[in-house]
Amino acid sequence: MNAHTRKPSENLPVPSDKAPSDKAPTGKGRELTARPPLPPAIAEFQSDAVELEERAPPRVARMTLYCVTALIASAITWASVSSIDEVVIAPGKLVTTQPTIVVQPLETSIIRTIEVKAGEVVHTGQTLATLDATFSQADVDQQQAKFSALDAQVRRIEAELAGDDYTKIAGDTPDQMLQAQLFGQRRAFYVAQLQNFDQQIAGQSAALVASKNQEAVLNDRRDGLSQIEAARERLYDNQSGSLITLLGSRDARLDVESDLTAVRGRADEAAHSYAKLTADRQAFIEDFRRAAMEQLVELRGQRDMADEELKKMALRRNMVVLTAPADSVVLDLAQRSVGSVVREAEPVVTLVPINVPLEAEVSINTRDIGRVAVGKEARIKLDAYPFQKYGTATGEVRTISQDTFLTGQQEQTATPGQPAAPFFKARILLADTRLNATDVPVRLLPGMTVTTEIKVGNRTVISYFLYPLLRGLDNAIREP
User: Fold this and answer.
1) Strands across the sheet with 321-323, in order?
2) Which of 26, 171, 295, 362 is 20 to 30 Å from 329 by CA-CA measure?
3) Where is the AprE-like beta-barrel domain (predicted)?
4) Which ranges of 117-242 would DSSP assign to H, the alpha helix?
């Protein structure tokens, strides 16, 4: 600044009693001599650099420094007391609570028709494909014939034991007609045998009655002859009768007693024969029924087994028509055409159930699994619907696997000595899937990829800056 531009008052010297102190204490007991400001008369002739150096800092600069310092202090304070959610990022996809439905043939067969296409919506019971039924139908027909024959025998024996006429309830099938003929023959044999026994029993009964009658007559004759003999014996004792007459009466009595003994023997024999024939008749009835019941038990077992086999064969025949077990969407079809041979249990149609609850199946890194627990809240971002526009879904952790998994691709691409990164699987139960969509309808489908943020706790902002420093300090100075 030139001398002619300064004010006169600026050229006056500063009094010594008002001059600032030129000494300042130092850290070691010494006093640091501060350079006093130059008098205006001298400063007038100094350079501009010296003048700027001697001038006090501007108020704006001081305020800026104070504001920056206060801002830094406020930021550190805010970072120390403020906390944010700590989340674990887990990618995955939407899956149904029910697994995919794989429709397979029960046995090796030939494809006759394919009724659906990939992506088609099918309903419960709808036909998906039809296989050749020649062999299974032949087995069913053969087993049905066996069952019908056994059933006809069982019903015929049941009618015999119940005393019913099977010919009146038999149908017109060959097996039933044959059993009706057999029923007639067996009934005729049964009746004939009973009639034979009845005739023999009647004969023995008549012989027994005749013997009893003859025995009564002989008893009367014996009594009469005994009296005659006694009278002639008295006459002989009185010498009024002859000995010859007495002996003749005695001989006649003995003849009658002999005949009486023979008649009694024949009566006993007739009684025994009557009892034997009666027992034989009853034994024949019991044996006939016992044999029928034993045969009935055996045939019932065979019929029940045949019925079960028939059910299995009928099911096997019905399985040639592959149907949808539930409302679903056709996900995939086997690479087979009509006329191709499909093996037993080979997947033919793969279905994805619809109208069933969805879950998110996510992969959790092994280093994060220690902070994830069942019941933790989660936020699901769907890749098909950007969360910036449509928002997010909410849910909670339902299950966590008890061991790690490796994807098939990881196992194939893993290099020797460098294993693939394992991960845990978790299922996220979707609680609220309402998205902020007004322009397009939101439809959640199995297979949609998602990114899940699982809330595992809170953390201060400053910890994000301190933890790396602490980790570095903990890992430092370890060299031997």
Assistant:
1) 321-323, 127-131, 109-114, 341-342
2) 362
3) 359-457
4) 134-162, 166-169, 174-237
Q: For residue 149, what are its two tokens? A: 């024959």
Cα-to-chain-centroid distance, residue 260? 90
Indicate the pLDDT class of residue 31, thresholds 50, 70 and 90: very low
Task: Please check whether residues 156 and 305 belong to one and the same domain.
Answer: yes
Please report, for the domain that includes residue 325, its CATH number: 2.40.50.100
Mean pLDDT across 244-261: 76
E strand or H helix at 310: helix 243-318
CATH code, domain carrying 414: 2.40.30.170
What's the mean pLDDT in 359-376? 93
191 and 332 together in one domain? no
* Pairing outcome for strands 349-353 and 101-103: antiparallel
329 lies in the same domain as 294? no
Axis crossing angle, helix 134-162 with helix 243-318, rounded to the nearest 10 = 150
Q: Determine if residue 375 is left, alpha or beta; phi over 0 gives left, psi from -120 to 50 gives alpha, anything else beta.
A: left
Torsion-angle region of residue 391: left (phi > 0), alpha (psi -120 to 50) or beta?
Answer: left
Whether residue 1 lies inside any domain: the answer is no
Residue 129 token pair: 């494909």
Q: Tens of pLDDT along 222-238?
A: 777 777 777 777 777 77
3-state secondary structure of 149: helix
pLDDT-above-90 percentage for the chain: 36
Range of the domain at 406: 86-97+357-460
Residue range 112-151, pLDDT digits in tens: 999 999 989 999 999 999 999 888 899 999 999 999 999 9
Judge whether 419 and 476 are in contact, CB under 8 Å: no
Q: Which residue has the tokens 């489908």?
A: 445
* Dihedral sign for Cα atoms in the order 73, 75, 76, 77: positive
Same domain, 297 and 433: no
- What radius of gyration, in Å, describes the C-alpha atoms of the chain? 61
Q: Which amino acid is at 28?
A: K
Token digits for 104? 């397979």
Q: What is the domain count for the chain?
A: 3
CA distances (Å), origin 217, targets 172, 206, 231, 268? 64, 17, 21, 17
**Does any domain span residue 476?**
no
The residue behind tokens 């057999």 is 182
Q: Of 350, 371, 396, which marks where a domain is finished?
A: 350
Query: Is the entire prediction scored with pTM above 0.70?
Result: no
